[in-house]
Amino acid sequence: MKSIKQICALAPVIPVLVIDDVTIAKPLAQALVKGGLPVLEVTLRTEAALDVIKAMSEVEGAIVGAGTILTPEDLSAAKNAGASFGVSPGSSDDLLKAAEVEGFPLLPGATTATEVMNLLAQGYDMLKFFPAAAAGGIDMLKSLAGPLPGVSFCPTGGINPGNVQAYLALPNVICVGGTWVTPKEMLAAGDWAGIEQLARQASGSASNE
């Protein structure tokens, strides 16, 4: 089993997916993987989410995780649905304990030095920085890098094509999470070729000028 840091290092962008219709799960995952974004975060914000995770997990090359994990019950349900990792906007002792017991890679969220230190003390050196833009964005991440050089982040929230390169240029950022690679209008139209193209652009974000 890969660690959460190894998973995050597989691509510069993790698509954050809010999917209501399970029938689009497989073609969407195939388009994203083909475009160079194999790590997918399906948020547990819809009734279809667990079925979407199950369907996407059957796509060759896809590494599917569950986002918006808030409780141990969420974590267990996500794992049973086939999720390879979990993402939480924050953390709780119960959730961290459940992840340890289940042997389930978890990306917990943190935005302050205190939160980062508490998670680091429990062995978490790869964290979600959410909501990135509202929590100080690039300037905040730069500030955290000095006193906490051993921690890496996946910023999510407010990341877009206009600022993604600036985030990825930070030494403590391994990847970012974003929704822009799966626009609602493209999902509604089943424009998998268009989404694949957006994924190709995003997968090259770290090296694009």
Helix and strand topology:
Elements: H1 4-8, E1 13-17, H2 25-34, E2 39-43, H3 49-56, E3 63-67, H4 72-81, E4 85-87, H5 93-102, E5 106-107, H6 113-121, E6 126-129, H7 137-145, E7 152-155, H8 164-168, E8 176-178, H9 184-189, H10 192-203
Parallel strand pairs: 1-2, 1-8, 2-3, 3-4, 4-5, 6-7
Helix pairs in contact: 2-3, 2-10
Cα(first) to Cα(last) distance is 34 Å
Output the strand order for the largest sheet: 5-4-3-2-1-8
CATH fold node name = TIM Barrel
Order of helices and strands: HEHEHEHEHEHEHEHEHH
The CATH class assignment is Alpha Beta
The residue fraction in helices comes out at 40-55%
Task: Give an account of the 3D structure.
40% of the residues lie in helices and 15% in strands. With 209 residues, it is of the alpha/beta class. The strands form two sheets. A six-stranded parallel beta sheet has the order 5-4-3-2-1-8. It has a two-stranded parallel ribbon with strand order 6-7. α2 packs across α3 and α2 packs parallel to α10. The N and C termini lie far apart (34 Å).
